[in-house]
Structures are given as structure tokens and as C-alpha cells.
Amino acid sequence: MEFLNHDLEKTALSLLEKRGVTLDDIADLVYFLQSKYHDDLSMEECLHNVKRVLTKREIQNAIITGIELDILGEQNKLQEPLLSIIKRDEGLYGIDEIIALSIVNVYGSIGFTNYGYIDKMKPGILERLNDKSTGMVHTFLDDIVGAIAAAASSRLAHRAAHKNSDERKDDK
């Protein structure tokens, strides 16, 4: 049976949920990244931008790929040395960040700085995903979640800049 494209988004969202990540968790990260730049930023606006980002097929593919690799690592179904690298979330591996950057790239270069900052700070859900004591492998998921938040932040920033540009035109 062929997998239908419209099922891709449902699958990606379901995988996030099964791994303990809610859209509200990601919206919290967007708020963390953008609240100091937008006086009236609401959680609803953050959540809206997260949902819009998640409609992109490239992002759905990244979610599914990364989470499946994490699950295979947990189940010891990868061969060495990849298994140990993924289970340890080895710092020099970098492929997890490459997948994350493919998400960030969808909304332009501002996402790169947002992603780097949030990846370093590890606020909210990212702190939990990086907790190795749980026995769960989130080598890819933590970077994917941070990248979705960075992309949603970029989307929000671009929309705000466009809105402000239109308002300045109206002032003339």
C-alpha cells in the first residue's frame, strides 16, 4: 500500500506526540526566542506559526527521519559504530544538526541564529529531551524541535517585518 502525502503531516505530528513533544512545547520555545522583539506577542501567535511550519513537507520528512533514527538507536537496531554515536549523542557527529538546519533553512538565514541560540540555551522541552538519564534517545529530536521553533520564529519575524513595512507605507 502506497503511503499518501496527506498522511505525512499526521504521521510527523503523531511521532512528536509519541515522543512527548507537544505543539505547545514548541510554541513556548518560539515565545522564548521572540517575546523580547514583539511587544504584543501571544502564545496563540506562536502556536499558529509552529503549525504553519509543520505543514511543510521538508519539515515533516525531517521529523520522521530523525525520530525513526532515535527509535532505532533505542532499540539497538543500528550497527556499530553508528549505534554508539547516536546513543551518546556524540558532539562531533553533526548529522543531527544537519537535519535541523534543513528545517531552519526553509525560512531564511535569521533561523540559523535563532537555532544556534536555542540549541546552546536548551530551554523548556529541550532540557528534558537532552536528559540522558531517561534511557530514551533524542539525538535527532532535540535538534529537530529546536529547529522547528527557530523556523517558526523566523516566519513570525518575517511576517512582522512585512507588516511594519506596510504600515510605514500607509503613513506616507
For the secondary structure, the number of strands is: 0
Largest sheet: none
Q: How large is the count of helical segments? A: 9
Rg result: 17 Å
Low-confidence stretches: none
What's the shape?
A: globular
Q: Which percent band covers the strand fraction?
A: under 5%
- Element-level helix/strand string: HHHHHHHHH
What's the overall average pLDDT, rounded?
A: 92
- C-alpha termini separation: 59 Å
**Share of helix, binned:** 55-70%
Query: Which structural category fits the helices and strands?
Result: mainly alpha
3D architecture notes:
The mean pLDDT is 92. The chain has 172 residues and is mainly alpha-helical. It has helices spanning 6-18, 23-34, 43-53, 57-74, 82-88, 95-104, 110-121, 125-129, 141-171. Helix 6 runs parallel beside helix 9 (141-171).
